[in-house]
Specification:
This protein is α/β, with parallel strands linked by helices. About 45% of the residues lie in helices and about 10% in strands. A hairpin with a 4-residue loop joins strand 3 (about 55) and strand 4. The chain is globular and about 65 Å long. About 45% of the residues are buried. One of its GO terms (biological process) is post-embryonic development. This is Tryptophan--tRNA ligase, cytoplasmic. GO terms for molecular function: ATP binding; tryptophan-tRNA ligase activity. It is an enzyme of class 6 (ligase).
Length: about 425
């Protein structure tokens, strides 16, 4: 499960039609989730000119900018409004995370149900994950973990983190041994985000899958047809069968009985999944199947995408280290990348900029500050001054360089403290007696 930035691997282009039944799928199988809704597979050339594409493996839009309103309507999720943000603050007695305040985590499925449970004094757990395909994480990869840590601290609930090393073996040109190694290396970066070992279980699929977890995978697999997968995930007859078998693996952590060492006898415990919205198709499938196998539907809280340095019309790629800021970058590298590659919404000359100001809608330094600058007042001031031409692009980039350098240096210090023994402790299959409250 890739919980953060856009996937790199290209997949068939899908346009989701939410009302027309899939050929060969009984109408009774189409639930309100539209998880079993169909997709019309089209040629890339035909779609690119007219439609945005969002799947767990591909994110693109004809003009480079994702239309999130259209995406919410297509997927059938709901917007997070000010009332929900205020309610979270009231229930947790914690200031809302900047990702909530600024609409970065902007959509949800059944989040109010989770808040109702919490308000009634009942428990839930968190589930998120990472597909370990690279040695180092970039800042986009950190976003779901930064937000999940806030949720864990604010609600004082347990968390399971799935490292899908099996998925990366199936989708990438990597050996099983390399996938397992990368999973442990990525686990160190995740632990460095500050998770509580008394409330957190990190597992890799290649090490953990079996027993009750595998039983739940089978229950899911038996109720999802090939047509269903073709419709929601773009599986084609040319894909190897490993891609058909993987979706139940990502679904299973949504069900508490997959973790008998954590939640024995508590099969109805609700699950909240923080993730990027490109993961929504997996969990529409999961939510459709859940009541058929006797479980509660998982709830979701979903984020926008984190843009590449070159702007929303491109994507971060491991093959282009200049497309992103990595948690291993030095201050010198961060400065060079921001100054040279961060796409500017400023004007071509100082004179024109003073007259017309910056276009904040396309300016990457402003977008990155929106993610990482904590002070709302300072952010608003920068936006106002920049938009009206009184602040120049160089000024904004300098502030961003300072913010990112501090963030990355702090992460590097925390990462340096993570030992192999700490990874083993987080991954140990053990009860968590103090995981609630």
């Amino acid at each position: 499960m890739e919980a953060g930035a856009q996937r790199e691997a290209a997949q068939p282009v899908l346009i989701v039609q939410e009302e027309t039944p899939v050929v060969g799928v009984p109408a009774a199988c189409i639930e309100e989730e539209t998880a079993m809704a169909p997709a019309i597979t089209m040629e890339i050339e035909e779609v690119a000119a007219a439609e945005q594409v969002v799947t767990p493996w591909e994110v693109s839009a004809p003009d480079g900018a994702i239309d999130y309103d259209k995406l919410v309507d297509r997927f059938g999720c709901q917007r997070i409004d000010a009332a929900i943000v205020d309610r979270i603050a009231r229930l947790t007695l914690c200031p809302p995370h900047r990702f909530l305040r600024r609409g970065i985590f902007f959509a949800h499925r059944d989040l109010n149900s989770i808040l109702d449970l919490y308000e009634a004094g009942k428990n839930f757990y968190l589930y998120t994950g990472r597909g370990p395909s690279s040695e180092s994480l970039h800042l986009g990869h950190l976003i779901p973990f930064m937000f999940t840590k806030y949720l864990q601290d604010a609600f004082k609930v347990p968390l399971v983190i799935q490292l899908t090393d099996d998925e990366k073996f199936l989708w990438k040109n990597l050996t099983i041994a390399e996938c397992k190694r990368l999973a442990r290396e990525n686990a160190k970066d995740i632990i460095a985000c500050g998770f509580d070992v008394e409330r957190t279980f990190i597992f890799t699929d290649l090490n953990y899958v079996g027993g009750a977890f595998y039983e739940n995978m089978l229950e899911v697999a038996k109720r999802v047809t090939y047509n269903n997968l073709r419709g929601i995930l773009g599986i084609t007859p040319e894909d190897h069968i490993g891609k058909v078998s993987f979706p139940p693996v990502q679904a299973a952590p949504s069900f508490p009985s997959s973790f008998p060492h954590l939640f024995p006898g508590n099969d109805q415990l609700r699950c909240l999944i923080p993730c990027a919205i490109d993961q929504d198709p997996y969990f529409r499938m999961t939510r459709d199947v859940a009541p058929k196998i006797g479980f509660q539907k998982p709830s979701l809280i979903e984020s926008r995408f984190f843009p590449a340095l070159q702007g929303e019309s491109t994507k971060m790629s491991a093959s282009d280290p200049n497309s992103a800021i990595y948690v291993t970058d030095s201050p010198k590298q961060i400065k060079a990348k921001v100054n040279k590659y961060a796409f500017s919404g400023g004007q071509a000359s100082v004179e024109l900029h003073r007259e017309f100001g910056a276009n904040l809608d396309v300016d990457v330094p402003i977008k990155y500050l929106n993610f990482f600058l904590e002070d709302d007042d300072e952010l608003d001031h920068i936006k106002k001054e920049y938009k009206e031409g009184r602040m120049l692009t160089g000024d904004v980039k300098q502030r961003l360089i300072a913010v990112l350098s501090e963030l990355v240096a702090r992460h590097q210090r925390a990462r340096a403290q993570v030992t192999e023994e700490m990874v083993d402790a987080f991954m140990a299959v053990r009860p968590l007696p103090n995981m609630f409250g």
